[in-house]
Amino acid sequence: MNAQALNQLEKKFGPAVEFDGKKYWLTQDAYLTGQLEAPYYEAAAINKAGARYMVYWDILPEINIHYIEDEHECCDWDNPTDFKKI
Asked: In principle, which of 16, 50, 53, 86 could form an S-S bond with 23, CB 3.0–4.6 Å?
C-alpha cells in the first residue's frame, strides 16, 4: 500500500493502533463488553489490506469499572491486549 493510501486511511479513521509491529485503524469507538466479572473494551478495525479485526483492551487493575468517571483512564489505549481477525 502506498503512502497516499495510508494517508487516506488516517484521514478516514484517524491514527492507527499498532500491535506486533502492524498497524490497524479503528472503524468504531471502543465499547465496554464482557461479563460482569471480567469486562474489557473492544472495537472493530481494519488493516491496510482491508481485512477486518477486533481490537481488545484489558481494564487497568486499579480501575473499579463500576465507578468509572472517565473512560479514557480505564485502559492503556496505546497498547491493545489482543487482535483477532473477524
From this structure: 16
Half-sphere exposure of 82 (CA within 13 A, CB side): 9
pLDDT band at 1 (very low <50, low <70, confident <90, very high): low
CA-to-CA distance for 26 and 48, rounded, in angstroms? 12
The span from the first CA to the last CA of the chain, in angstroms, equals: 21
d(CA 62, CA 68): 11
Selection from 52, 25, 30 nearest residue 41 by Cα: 30
Hey, what amino acid is at 8? Q
Longest dimension (CA), the chain: 44
Rounded CA gap, 9 and 19, in Å?
A: 17
